[in-house]
Amino acid sequence: MQTEINPLIRDVYRRMREALGIEQAFLAKKIHCTISKLSKWEQDEGDLKDAQVKQLGDELRKLAGQREKRYAELFGSIDPALQIFTPAIFRELRELHGLSQSELANRAGLLQFSVSMFETGHRILGKHEAERAVNALKAVIGEREKEIQK
């Protein structure tokens, strides 16, 4: 018997997968289903077996833990505000403050390509790159706050 899955679970798992930069193909292989079946499940157009849903959740938690550990190794003790530093949040902050990828890259001394690859989840910035990018973004936020105060 198939358990009714809350549609929010599908959305949370999809968002988590995307935030981690994990392809559906990778997870489909891990939970022993087709990419099409996983895609349809994420869109609430198909079903997975209960065991596959549990396995999917376990796999996402494991991958999130590995990523968190990798970031901790890279950054050591980092600003607590950056504990939720993800490509999606980074991109949202950059866009909210009217900064293009090129402008941010120039301010941080990075290549625009590196910023793009990070924001799309295809690359993890190194410790020094991330610090420069974050500092550039913080500087822009500070500038915007000063403009607002005037």
Largest sheet, in brief, is: none
Tally of discrete structural domains: 2
Strand content: under 5%
> Over all CA atoms, what is the radius of gyration?
18 Å
Task: Summarize the helix and strand pattern as letters.
Answer: HHHHHHHH
The name of the CATH superfamily of the largest domain reads lambda repressor-like DNA-binding domains
**Regions with little confidence, pLDDT below 50 for 5+ residues:** 78-83
Q: Structural class of the helix and strand makeup?
A: mainly alpha
Q: Could you name the CATH topology of the largest domain? A: 434 Repressor (Amino-terminal Domain)
| CATH class category name of the largest domain | Mainly Alpha
Oligomer: single chain
Overall mean pLDDT:
82
> Got a strand count?
0
Shape: elongated
Provide a count of the helices: 8
Name the helicity range.
Answer: 55-70%
How far from one another are the termini? 64 Å
Which second-level CATH architecture of the largest domain applies? Orthogonal Bundle
Commentary on this structure:
- The chain is an all-alpha fold.
- The protein folds into two domains: 7-72, 434 Repressor (Amino-terminal Domain) (Orthogonal Bundle); 78-149, lambda repressor-like DNA-binding domains (434 Repressor (Amino-terminal Domain)).
- It is 69% helix and 0% strand.
- The protein contains eight helices and no strands.
- It has helices at 7-19, 24-30, 35-42, 50-75, 87-96, 101-108, 112-119, 127-149.
- α2 (24-30) packs across α3, α6 crosses α7 (112-119) and α6 (101-108) crosses α8.
- The longest helix is centred in the middle third of the chain and has 26 residues, at 50-75.
- It starts with 6 loop residues before the first helix and ends with a helix.
- Mean pLDDT is 82; it is low at 78-83.
